Amino acid sequence: MNERSKTQELYYADYLQLPRLLDSQLPESRRHGREAHDEMLFIVTHQTYELWFKQILHELKSVLAAFAVAPLDEHSIGVIVARLERIIAIQKVLNQQIDVLETITPLDFLDFRDYLIPASGFQSVQFREIELRLGLGVHLPQPVTGRLRSEDVAYLGKVAGESSLFQQVDAWLARMPFLKFEDYDFWESYREAVKVMLARDKRSIEENPLFSEAERRAQLIELDNTRRKFEYLLDPTGFERLKAQGLFHLRQTSVLSALFIQLYRDEPILHLPFRLLSHLMDIDELFTAWRSRHALMAQRMLGSKIGTGGSSGHDYLQQTVDKKRIFKDLFNLSTFLIPRSSLPALPRRLKQSLDFHFTGERCV
């Protein structure tokens, strides 16, 4: 029997600190003498956002701690995938909460909006921290500002100086084996497979009777652009051109490793790495959807009015949606996928390295 059970039983409200939690909704409109009914919902929803942000950071920090071990312990990948899945589940709840917020009509919002100035969601330190720990600072290096208190600016500046998930994933992918195995160079086989695929696509365009001459020329020009991208992908100098075009932020070896995982995802040892990369795209997509819905909600609530934090409201939020995508590199990999039927066959010994081989209880 532990010390607590000897003296007192644990009570539900005490464990969750409900008196403190439920006494933390203090509408500004009440302080001004005329409480707006919908301000309570506005406060509760945003407090709930912050609680979920806290849980996302809890999961994200554990993922970063696992990646900080170099080389990554392969036993950790399952845990990382599970933690990312939890973040994704939370993000879906965050998006659903906008449905609740939108039960506040624009006219009801005006009953308390002016009392909130200059506070705004831009001052959510936790959300800023999530962005930085995911890797936004790698893509948009800029000083942390936005009407934040000096201590919050200092804290976020410290976070920005730490290794992000994007950087950790980049380093993990760069260390991946299998791209060159003994005397086998996978990328030479891949180059040949791409050449055959593009030649087939060219014949298909040239022989398609449904294209006009103008459409045929346009299709062939686009195909040539695709061919050039494939060439750049495998050439260090050319790859820098792809980076200059904003197609990639990862280093070349990391992109090639991620592509190999995508192409050979059916190999047993690549199942979890594939899910890991897919979950990073899910996280990026869900935060993009959250920002986009938030922008639309701001337009619905404010029209073209300036936001409470001094931004241009909807227009500003919508402009930041695509700029704040962190794992766009992984989405762009689809450009370089080839059909399973065209995939180069892997040498037997390499394929065995990507598999689990057992005969009864004896490993072969």
From TrEMBL:
Catalytic EC class: oxidoreductase
Chemical reaction(s) catalysed: L-tryptophan + O2 = N-formyl-L-kynurenine
Binding site for heme: H294
Keyword Iron: yes
Cofactor dependency: heme
Pathway: Amino-acid degradation; L-tryptophan degradation via kynurenine pathway; L-kynurenine from L-tryptophan: step 1/2
Gene3D superfamilies: 1.10.287.3810, 1.20.58.480
Keywords: Dioxygenase, Heme, Iron, Metal-binding, Oxidoreductase, Tryptophan catabolism
EC number: 1.13.11.11
Molecular-function GO term, any one: L-tryptophan 2,3-dioxygenase activity
Coiled coil: none
Family note: Belongs to the tryptophan 2,3-dioxygenase family.
Record note on quaternary structure: Homotetramer.
Protein name: Tryptophan 2,3-dioxygenase
Lineage: Bacteria, Pseudomonadati, Pseudomonadota, Gammaproteobacteria, Methylococcales
